[in-house]
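Thread: "does anyone have the structure for this chain?"

Original post by V.I.:
We have the sequence but no experimental structure in hand. Need at least a predicted one for the grant figures.
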Amino acid sequence: MALSVAVFGQAAFGRDVLLRLLEAGHEVVGVFAPPAPAAPVAGGRGDALAEEAQRLGLRLLRPRVLRRGGAAIAERVAEHAALGAELNVLAFVTQILPEEILNAPRLGSLCFHPSLLPKFRGGNALAWQIILGERESGVTVFRPDAGVDTGPIVLQQGGFAIEKHHTAASLYFEQLYEPGVAAMLRAVELVERGEAQPRPQDERLASHQGLVDDEVARIDWERPAAELDCLLRGCDPNPGAHTRLGGETLRLFGCRLEAAGEPEGAEAASAATAPGTVLSCAQSLRIAARGGVLRVAKLRRAKGPKLPAAESGIAPGARLG
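Reply from O.Q.:
Generated one for you, tokens below.
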């Protein structure tokens, strides 16, 4: 039995969930994608979900506001109701939908989250798992409610290792992307067959982290090297962990913690070397930290483009922070 589905989402993940729903024979009655930018961004790409919906001739809606309150919200609720969707599928949605939309379809809504809920609720779950040194990640499909990632779990899959090289981006694309798309389709299938058995989240295990902003992303060179390695990787690609060089802000990307005995010709950091000191800058920027050396492949100065570390012009002996 095919379902009539409204898809909410964005980017390639939303597009692939949309295509898989259509392949499974479901009718997509509407696609809600992020609003188009007011002005085209030079060299930028459009939203993959919106572009696919347009290509397929599906009903595409790109509202700027979906939160509760006001005449604009009433219009959005009415617009959604007119679609006649039996199920909402939320494929990586970053804004909170009003309950009038979540609960409108007869089969409710399903929402994807890139962590093993109830751990790491919130909008930057990928980043926080790395920043806080989590060893394992997973994907969850749940029934959204009035809270933030608090609804009952329909389907969950774990066992995806967070490796020492993972950034927020590579963890997502290497480990969670394909299982996440598959989990969304499996959850829809369970709902379609009447076999879904949502279970409440265990609040004793719950954690919620805020957004990873510039305060979180600021590098304190007094922290241990292993913690800074997690911070830099968790903030990669956004917002980029940052430090200072003189009066200039530097954002550091492509970080890894140097293994013992791995120096590339320059002397390794000793206990007497001040944390934040640049040891060398050849293929990577090697920076002394407490208990180790960080290798940084790229950096951004002020608001300029990312540059390979070798092109940064930073000399050995420079002190960051």
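V.I.: this helps a lot. The mean pLDDT is 92.
O.Q.: and DSSP finds seven helices and 13 strands in the chain.
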